[in-house]
Amino acid sequence: MNGNIIESAQSASSKFDFSELSPDLLLDAIESVGIVVESGLLPLNSYENRVYQFHDQQRQKYVVKFYRPERWSKAQIQEEHDFALELVEHELPIVAPLVINGTSLLEYQGYLFALFPCRGGRIFEVDNLDQLEWMGRFVGRIHAIAAKKPFVARPTFSSQESLIDATNIIQQSGFVPSHLSEAFFTILQQVVSEAKSQYQPQADQIIRLHGDCHAGNILWTDAGPHFVDLDDCRAGPAIQDLWMMLSGDRQQQLLQLDTLLEGYQEFYSFEAKQLVLIESLRTMRVVNYIAWLCKRWQDPAFPHNFPWFNTEKYWEQQILMLKEQLSALQQPALSLYSV
């Protein structure tokens, strides 16, 4: 899914219209900004947008991203680009869009797109403590810059959008089998109610975020990590950019968290009281994932790539997963060894 889970509320009415994005249109769009495609366009792993790798006549490698119509406004995409470019100006390893003819946000026949330099690397090892400490420093540097000013167009993580609106999307989709409906929606409502009561960030905790710090968006080279996608950047509490790098049982997560924050606090202060938000943020993510599949099912790419969705087994598994998440919400929050 390439991390594109939590979306602006307006996307519920999206046309999912990539039907006219033909190979010829792709090539014409790229060549409209003065770049001649020499290779074929290699599709990359992205379901929300359409992303391709190619090289030009000088053998320079690029990635082109065509944004899903109606998901983000022009102002919201431009703010994503500006954030990435701001971080690059501060020498942070972010893959930012190229500025071509004075703009990073390009348009061709109604499609918005951007070009990026192609940057490879290895997958971030979430159980590698050395890499975790490095990532802590990396995210701390990002947050030190991000906290200096707010987003204007990008949205903020909210329980209304990420829990209530997402639940409504699932209910209206009609995908839950009738004989599982009562069990599913009963546990879903319990989880949503508990998460909503726990997600109470303070106003001064809200900063600009990467928004989707999972391993698939972090690539590693001998020089260290870099982020390849800011597509889900939005405002929220700092812990949102840290909790997805935790894995394993409680003791493993405590060690990982302590390691992350050892690096993080070299550059930005962390408030331990944000730890109570982790399970509510996790709940927001898992509920949105279900809603995302429901509302994207019209896109032909989704039945092809997610064949297990919309099966009886899938919804049975979601009931079990939500029961486990309710239990996690009812457990004491993680605490720190040292801060």
Structural features:
339 residues; alpha+beta; Phosphorylase Kinase, domain 1; five-stranded antiparallel β-sheet; 9 helices; 10 strands; 40% helix
Structure, described:
The protein is an alpha+beta fold and 339 residues long. The protein has a domain at 9-118: Phosphorylase Kinase, domain 1 (2-Layer Sandwich), CATH 3.30.200.70. It contains 9 helices and 10 strands. It has helices spanning 23-31, 74-89, 129-146, 159-173, 178-198, 250-264, 278-296, 301-305, 312-329; strands at residues 42-43, 50-55, 61-66, 106-108, 111-117, 122-123, 206-209, 218-221, 224-227, 234-237. Strand 8 (218-221) and strand 9 form a beta hairpin. The protein is globular, with a radius of gyration of 20 Å. The two termini are 34 Å apart.
Number of helices: 9
Structural category is alpha+beta
Strand line-up of the largest beta sheet: 1-2-3-5-4
Give unreliable regions as ranges: 1-15
CATH architecture type of the domain at 9-118: 2-Layer Sandwich
What is the string of helix and strand elements? HEEEHEEEHHHEEEEHHHH
Entry summary:
It is built from nine helices and ten strands. The protein is α+β, with helices and mostly antiparallel strands. Helix 4 (159-173) runs antiparallel to helix 5, helix 4 runs parallel beside helix 7 (278-296) and helix 5 (178-198) runs antiparallel to helix 7.
Topology:
Layout: H1 23-31, E1 42-43, E2 50-55, E3 61-66, H2 74-89, E4 106-108, E5 111-117, E6 122-123, H3 129-146, H4 159-173, H5 178-198, E7 206-209, E8 218-221, E9 224-227, E10 234-237, H6 250-264, H7 278-296, H8 301-305, H9 312-329
Antiparallel strand pairs: 1-2, 2-3, 3-5, 4-5, 6-8, 7-10, 8-9
